[in-house]
Amino acid sequence: MPLSDAHLQHYRDHGWVVVPHFFSAQELAPALTALPEVVPTAEEFAEHPDCERCAALVSGPFEGLLNYPLAQQPLNALAVDEKLLSAVGAVLRTPDVRIYQACLWAKYGGPHTYDQRLHLDYRNQSLLVPSEDPAFHQVNAFVYLNDVDDDSATRVVSRQHTSGLAYDEADLDRARHPELYALEQSAVGPAGSLLLFEARTYHRAVDITRPGAARFVLNTAFRTAQAEWVGYHAWPFRGKRPEWVAWVARSSPAQLQALGFPPPHHPYWTPGTLRAVGLRYPGIDLSAWEA
Q1: What is the rounded CA–CA span in Å between residue 132 and residue 129?
Q2: DSSP letter string over 179-227?
Q3: DSSP for 24-54?
Q4: Please, how many CA atoms are within 13 Å of residue 260, restricted to the half-sphere of its CB?
Q5: What are the tens digits of pLDDT across the range 225-281?
Q6: b (16+ CB within 10 A) / e for 70-84
Q7: What is the pTM of this model?
Protein backbone atom coordinates (compact mmCIF):
# COMPACT_ATOMS: atom_id res chain seq x y z
CA MET A 1 0.00 0.00 0.00
CA PRO A 2 1.46 3.40 -0.96
CA LEU A 3 -0.59 5.03 1.82
CA SER A 4 -0.38 4.14 5.50
CA ASP A 5 -3.45 3.50 7.61
CA ALA A 6 -2.74 6.82 9.35
CA HIS A 7 -2.79 8.68 6.03
CA LEU A 8 -6.06 7.05 5.01
CA GLN A 9 -7.63 7.80 8.37
CA HIS A 10 -6.58 11.45 8.20
CA TYR A 11 -8.12 11.68 4.74
CA ARG A 12 -11.36 10.08 5.93
CA ASP A 13 -11.52 12.33 9.01
CA HIS A 14 -10.53 15.64 7.46
CA GLY A 15 -11.01 15.38 3.67
CA TRP A 16 -7.32 15.94 2.92
CA VAL A 17 -3.86 14.58 3.69
CA VAL A 18 -0.24 15.25 2.73
CA VAL A 19 1.95 12.19 2.22
CA PRO A 20 5.59 13.37 2.50
CA HIS A 21 8.11 11.84 0.08
CA PHE A 22 5.40 9.82 -1.67
CA PHE A 23 7.74 9.71 -4.66
CA SER A 24 11.42 9.20 -3.92
CA ALA A 25 14.10 11.42 -5.44
CA GLN A 26 14.96 8.60 -7.84
CA GLU A 27 11.33 8.17 -8.93
CA LEU A 28 10.93 11.92 -9.42
CA ALA A 29 14.23 12.44 -11.26
CA PRO A 30 13.03 11.91 -14.89
CA ALA A 31 10.21 14.43 -14.44
CA LEU A 32 12.52 16.97 -12.81
CA THR A 33 15.01 16.61 -15.66
CA ALA A 34 12.25 17.41 -18.15
CA LEU A 35 10.72 20.25 -16.13
CA PRO A 36 13.06 23.10 -17.30
CA GLU A 37 12.12 22.27 -20.89
CA VAL A 38 8.54 23.28 -20.07
CA VAL A 39 8.82 26.16 -17.57
CA PRO A 40 11.64 28.40 -16.30
CA THR A 41 13.42 27.36 -13.14
CA ALA A 42 13.11 29.60 -10.07
CA GLU A 43 16.63 30.89 -10.75
CA GLU A 44 15.93 31.60 -14.42
CA PHE A 45 12.76 33.48 -13.56
CA ALA A 46 14.44 35.53 -10.82
CA GLU A 47 17.24 36.52 -13.19
CA HIS A 48 15.07 37.32 -16.22
CA PRO A 49 11.48 37.93 -14.99
CA ASP A 50 10.63 40.08 -18.02
CA CYS A 51 11.71 37.58 -20.65
CA GLU A 52 8.90 36.50 -22.96
CA ARG A 53 8.87 32.95 -21.62
CA CYS A 54 8.70 34.13 -18.00
CA ALA A 55 6.29 37.02 -18.38
CA ALA A 56 3.71 34.84 -20.15
CA LEU A 57 3.44 32.54 -17.13
CA VAL A 58 2.57 35.33 -14.68
CA SER A 59 0.31 37.51 -16.84
CA GLY A 60 -2.69 36.06 -14.96
CA PRO A 61 -3.27 33.77 -11.97
CA PHE A 62 -3.84 30.70 -14.16
CA GLU A 63 -1.37 31.36 -17.00
CA GLY A 64 1.13 29.02 -15.38
CA LEU A 65 -1.39 26.16 -15.53
CA LEU A 66 -0.32 24.04 -18.52
CA ASN A 67 -2.69 21.33 -19.70
CA TYR A 68 -1.62 17.78 -20.54
CA PRO A 69 -0.46 16.03 -22.59
CA LEU A 70 2.99 17.62 -22.72
CA ALA A 71 5.76 16.89 -25.18
CA GLN A 72 7.91 15.70 -22.25
CA GLN A 73 6.86 12.10 -21.66
CA PRO A 74 8.37 11.71 -18.16
CA LEU A 75 5.94 14.37 -16.94
CA ASN A 76 3.03 12.66 -18.70
CA ALA A 77 4.00 9.31 -17.21
CA LEU A 78 4.05 10.73 -13.67
CA ALA A 79 0.37 11.68 -13.94
CA VAL A 80 -0.64 8.03 -14.33
CA ASP A 81 2.17 6.43 -12.37
CA GLU A 82 0.84 3.13 -11.04
CA LYS A 83 1.91 4.05 -7.52
CA LEU A 84 -0.24 7.18 -7.78
CA LEU A 85 -3.13 5.17 -9.24
CA SER A 86 -2.89 2.79 -6.30
CA ALA A 87 -3.04 5.67 -3.80
CA VAL A 88 -6.00 7.21 -5.57
CA GLY A 89 -7.73 3.83 -5.64
CA ALA A 90 -7.23 3.53 -1.89
CA VAL A 91 -8.91 6.84 -1.09
CA LEU A 92 -11.67 6.27 -3.66
CA ARG A 93 -12.12 2.71 -2.36
CA THR A 94 -11.95 1.15 -5.82
CA PRO A 95 -9.17 0.22 -8.26
CA ASP A 96 -11.42 1.30 -11.14
CA VAL A 97 -10.48 4.99 -11.37
CA ARG A 98 -10.31 7.54 -14.18
CA ILE A 99 -7.98 10.51 -14.50
CA TYR A 100 -9.99 13.50 -15.68
CA GLN A 101 -7.50 16.34 -15.12
CA ALA A 102 -3.75 16.65 -15.52
CA CYS A 103 -1.86 19.94 -15.54
CA LEU A 104 1.57 21.26 -14.68
CA TRP A 105 1.22 24.36 -12.51
CA ALA A 106 4.16 26.74 -12.22
CA LYS A 107 3.97 29.69 -9.83
CA TYR A 108 6.65 32.27 -9.03
CA GLY A 109 7.37 34.61 -6.16
CA GLY A 110 6.95 38.34 -6.50
CA PRO A 111 4.10 40.75 -7.26
CA HIS A 112 1.92 38.11 -8.95
CA THR A 113 -1.63 37.39 -7.83
CA TYR A 114 -2.54 33.82 -6.92
CA ASP A 115 -4.59 34.48 -3.78
CA GLN A 116 -8.07 32.92 -3.77
CA ARG A 117 -11.05 32.62 -1.50
CA LEU A 118 -11.76 29.28 0.13
CA HIS A 119 -13.73 27.32 -2.46
CA LEU A 120 -14.87 24.00 -3.87
CA ASP A 121 -13.88 22.99 -7.41
CA TYR A 122 -16.98 21.09 -8.49
CA ARG A 123 -18.50 23.89 -10.57
CA ASN A 124 -15.96 23.44 -13.37
CA GLN A 125 -15.42 19.71 -12.81
CA SER A 126 -18.91 18.27 -12.53
CA LEU A 127 -22.37 18.67 -14.05
CA LEU A 128 -23.82 18.01 -10.59
CA VAL A 129 -22.66 18.54 -7.00
CA PRO A 130 -20.35 16.29 -4.94
CA SER A 131 -22.01 13.13 -3.71
CA GLU A 132 -21.91 11.77 -0.18
CA ASP A 133 -21.78 8.25 -1.65
CA PRO A 134 -18.17 6.97 -1.96
CA ALA A 135 -19.14 5.20 -5.19
CA PHE A 136 -19.24 8.61 -6.90
CA HIS A 137 -16.34 10.39 -5.22
CA GLN A 138 -13.54 12.35 -6.84
CA VAL A 139 -10.14 13.40 -5.50
CA ASN A 140 -7.53 16.00 -6.38
CA ALA A 141 -3.96 14.74 -6.24
CA PHE A 142 -1.11 17.29 -6.27
CA VAL A 143 2.44 15.95 -6.70
CA TYR A 144 5.04 18.41 -5.40
CA LEU A 145 7.93 18.74 -7.84
CA ASN A 146 9.87 20.98 -5.46
CA ASP A 147 9.76 21.78 -1.75
CA VAL A 148 6.48 23.51 -0.86
CA ASP A 149 6.65 25.64 2.28
CA ASP A 150 4.16 27.90 4.04
CA ASP A 151 4.82 30.71 1.57
CA SER A 152 3.34 28.75 -1.35
CA ALA A 153 1.33 25.86 0.08
CA THR A 154 -2.35 25.30 -0.66
CA ARG A 155 -4.55 26.15 2.31
CA VAL A 156 -7.14 23.55 3.34
CA VAL A 157 -9.88 23.40 5.95
CA SER A 158 -10.87 20.15 7.64
CA ARG A 159 -14.30 18.89 6.67
CA GLN A 160 -15.00 18.57 10.36
CA HIS A 161 -15.47 22.35 10.31
CA THR A 162 -17.40 22.69 7.04
CA SER A 163 -19.69 19.67 6.74
CA GLY A 164 -22.73 21.78 7.60
CA LEU A 165 -22.25 24.23 4.72
CA ALA A 166 -24.57 24.07 1.72
CA TYR A 167 -23.04 23.28 -1.69
CA ASP A 168 -24.26 26.61 -3.09
CA GLU A 169 -21.60 28.20 -0.87
CA ALA A 170 -18.86 27.17 -3.26
CA ASP A 171 -16.86 30.34 -2.52
CA LEU A 172 -16.53 31.54 1.06
CA ASP A 173 -16.27 35.26 1.68
CA ARG A 174 -13.66 35.99 4.35
CA ALA A 175 -15.88 38.62 5.99
CA ARG A 176 -18.76 36.16 6.34
CA HIS A 177 -16.66 33.18 7.45
CA PRO A 178 -13.63 34.55 9.32
CA GLU A 179 -13.71 31.54 11.64
CA LEU A 180 -13.00 29.15 8.74
CA TYR A 181 -10.10 31.22 7.45
CA ALA A 182 -8.70 31.11 10.96
CA LEU A 183 -8.89 27.30 10.88
CA GLU A 184 -7.17 26.76 7.54
CA GLN A 185 -3.96 24.73 7.45
CA SER A 186 -0.98 24.85 5.10
CA ALA A 187 -0.42 21.67 3.07
CA VAL A 188 3.38 21.91 3.20
CA GLY A 189 5.67 19.13 2.08
CA PRO A 190 9.08 18.38 0.53
CA ALA A 191 9.60 17.53 -3.12
CA GLY A 192 7.93 14.24 -4.00
CA SER A 193 5.08 14.75 -1.53
CA LEU A 194 1.46 14.06 -2.46
CA LEU A 195 -1.47 16.24 -1.41
CA LEU A 196 -4.86 14.53 -1.65
CA PHE A 197 -8.11 16.37 -1.04
CA GLU A 198 -11.68 15.46 -1.89
CA ALA A 199 -14.20 17.49 -3.86
CA ARG A 200 -16.03 18.53 -0.69
CA THR A 201 -12.92 20.05 0.92
CA TYR A 202 -12.57 23.83 0.94
CA HIS A 203 -9.14 25.01 -0.14
CA ARG A 204 -7.41 27.99 -1.72
CA ALA A 205 -4.19 29.24 -3.28
CA VAL A 206 -2.09 32.05 -1.80
CA ASP A 207 0.35 34.59 -3.17
CA ILE A 208 4.01 33.59 -3.14
CA THR A 209 5.57 36.59 -1.45
CA ARG A 210 9.23 35.56 -1.26
CA PRO A 211 11.24 36.88 -4.23
CA GLY A 212 13.12 34.16 -6.06
CA ALA A 213 10.75 31.43 -4.85
CA ALA A 214 8.72 29.15 -7.09
CA ARG A 215 6.27 26.28 -6.77
CA PHE A 216 5.98 23.47 -9.30
CA VAL A 217 3.09 21.04 -8.90
CA LEU A 218 1.62 18.27 -11.00
CA ASN A 219 -2.10 18.94 -10.57
CA THR A 220 -4.17 15.83 -11.24
CA ALA A 221 -7.73 14.80 -10.41
CA PHE A 222 -9.41 11.40 -10.45
CA ARG A 223 -12.92 10.00 -10.14
CA THR A 224 -14.53 6.64 -9.73
CA ALA A 225 -15.44 5.06 -13.06
CA GLN A 226 -19.13 5.40 -12.20
CA ALA A 227 -19.05 9.20 -11.77
CA GLU A 228 -19.43 9.90 -15.48
CA TRP A 229 -20.74 13.44 -14.89
CA VAL A 230 -17.34 14.51 -13.54
CA GLY A 231 -14.74 15.81 -15.96
CA TYR A 232 -12.31 18.52 -17.00
CA HIS A 233 -10.25 17.39 -19.98
CA ALA A 234 -11.81 15.53 -22.88
CA TRP A 235 -8.93 13.22 -23.76
CA PRO A 236 -10.37 12.25 -27.18
CA PHE A 237 -10.17 15.92 -28.19
CA ARG A 238 -6.38 15.59 -27.93
CA GLY A 239 -6.33 12.35 -29.91
CA LYS A 240 -4.46 13.68 -32.97
CA ARG A 241 -1.65 15.32 -31.01
CA PRO A 242 1.69 13.47 -31.26
CA GLU A 243 2.35 13.89 -27.53
CA TRP A 244 -0.96 12.11 -26.82
CA VAL A 245 -0.05 9.25 -29.15
CA ALA A 246 3.33 8.92 -27.44
CA TRP A 247 1.74 9.04 -23.96
CA VAL A 248 -0.75 6.29 -24.79
CA ALA A 249 1.83 4.13 -26.56
CA ARG A 250 4.05 4.14 -23.46
CA SER A 251 1.30 3.48 -20.91
CA SER A 252 0.71 0.19 -19.11
CA PRO A 253 -2.67 -1.59 -19.23
CA ALA A 254 -3.60 -0.14 -15.81
CA GLN A 255 -2.68 3.36 -16.98
CA LEU A 256 -4.65 2.95 -20.20
CA GLN A 257 -7.75 2.05 -18.23
CA ALA A 258 -7.25 5.12 -16.03
CA LEU A 259 -7.16 7.21 -19.22
CA GLY A 260 -10.47 5.67 -20.32
CA PHE A 261 -9.65 2.56 -22.36
CA PRO A 262 -12.39 -0.07 -21.88
CA PRO A 263 -11.16 -2.99 -19.77
CA PRO A 264 -10.26 -6.42 -21.18
CA HIS A 265 -13.30 -8.55 -22.07
CA HIS A 266 -15.33 -5.42 -22.82
CA PRO A 267 -17.54 -6.00 -25.89
CA TYR A 268 -15.69 -3.24 -27.74
CA TRP A 269 -12.63 -5.42 -28.12
CA THR A 270 -12.52 -7.66 -31.18
CA PRO A 271 -9.60 -8.89 -33.27
CA GLY A 272 -10.33 -6.00 -35.63
CA THR A 273 -10.36 -3.23 -33.02
CA LEU A 274 -7.27 -4.65 -31.32
CA ARG A 275 -5.38 -4.62 -34.60
CA ALA A 276 -6.54 -1.09 -35.47
CA VAL A 277 -5.75 0.37 -32.03
CA GLY A 278 -2.29 -1.18 -32.29
CA LEU A 279 -1.78 0.59 -35.60
CA ARG A 280 -3.03 3.91 -34.19
CA TYR A 281 -0.62 3.73 -31.24
CA PRO A 282 2.59 2.00 -32.42
CA GLY A 283 4.29 0.20 -29.55
CA ILE A 284 1.22 0.09 -27.30
CA ASP A 285 1.02 -2.80 -24.84
CA LEU A 286 -2.29 -4.56 -25.52
CA SER A 287 -1.19 -7.88 -24.04
CA ALA A 288 -3.84 -7.76 -21.29
CA TRP A 289 -6.55 -7.35 -23.90
CA GLU A 290 -5.13 -9.94 -26.30
CA ALA A 291 -4.96 -12.47 -23.47
Answers
A1: 10
A2: HHHHH-EE--B-TT-EEEEETT--EE-----STT-EEEEEEEEEEETT-
A3: -HHHHHHHHHHHHHHS--HHHHHH-TTSHHH
A4: 12
A5: 999 999 999 999 999 999 999 999 999 999 999 999 999 999 999 999 999 999 999
A6: bebbbbbbbbbbbeb
A7: 0.96
